[in-house]
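As a warm-up, study this chain.
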Amino acid sequence: MGAGIRIKRSPTHFLRDVSFSSNGVTSSLRLPTITIDNSTKTLFLNLIACEMSSDVEHDFISYLPLFDSLTDQADDVKELQSMGVVLNNLGTHELVVEFFNTMSANLESNFHAYKDVRVRIKKHQQSHYNNIVKMWMTECLNTYFGTPCAIIAWVAMFLALFLTASRVTSKSSLILILLDTLGLI
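Now compare it with the structure written out below.
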């Protein structure tokens, strides 16, 4: 996701368990895991009918447009699936995008549901795109420290440099001690 926002899986499966946290440069959006298969459409339509016919808060109806805004392209679904947020048993990623587009069409969600998450994401994006240093730092983190292998490689490189530097200084101090004992210094 743009602006240095990483998608992570929530520890629970509750629809209300959507959270956003930011440390200034990077941030994370936590979403509950959702399974998409052949029976999901029937389940979703029943949940929508149940919420619309009762006076309960429209959690599910509000969740669908939020999730639909995250799945505009097949690559978005692929990323959500790699993070464990989407379990795609429907088939292709394009089918999942089409599924959410049709399910969330013409739904009027509760404006207050997930309002704090939307506001915090918007603030993060505004501060991110208005600060060139944050954009560069985010790009650097994603490019050079985006995978565990890259982090291990950086740690190994710094360890090798440290050990090389310490060996050079220990050899040079041995030479100085030897020259001092010989009275050449």
